[in-house]
Amino acid sequence: MYRSFNANVVLVQDPREATCQEIAKFLQTNPNMPYEFQDAINYASEHNTLVEVYVGKSPVNPNGSKYRDIADRFKQGLVGDGLISVLNMNPLRLIFRVPVKEDNSSNNVL
Question: Into how many domains does the chain fold?
Fold first, then answer.
């Protein structure tokens, strides 16, 4: 279909997806450490221009519909393949959980 028009097609990234990805990237920088959602979305807004255009400049208004939409995605577990958990709902606190492997070599006594 696109060849018949002989034109290039530009695909634009969904700003909601970009916001969620940027927040997930922020949470992954320090695994197993909780962050308030407000801090995470402000980080996303400061580090990605598409996110800034979508949700606004930092500090992002927590009463806006876009803010609530992104927060709902995390509350419903739609982001992070099950590795991002909600610790607290009000204020919303998120954590990127990484299983900690125990080192059994230190338990061996010679």
Answer: 1
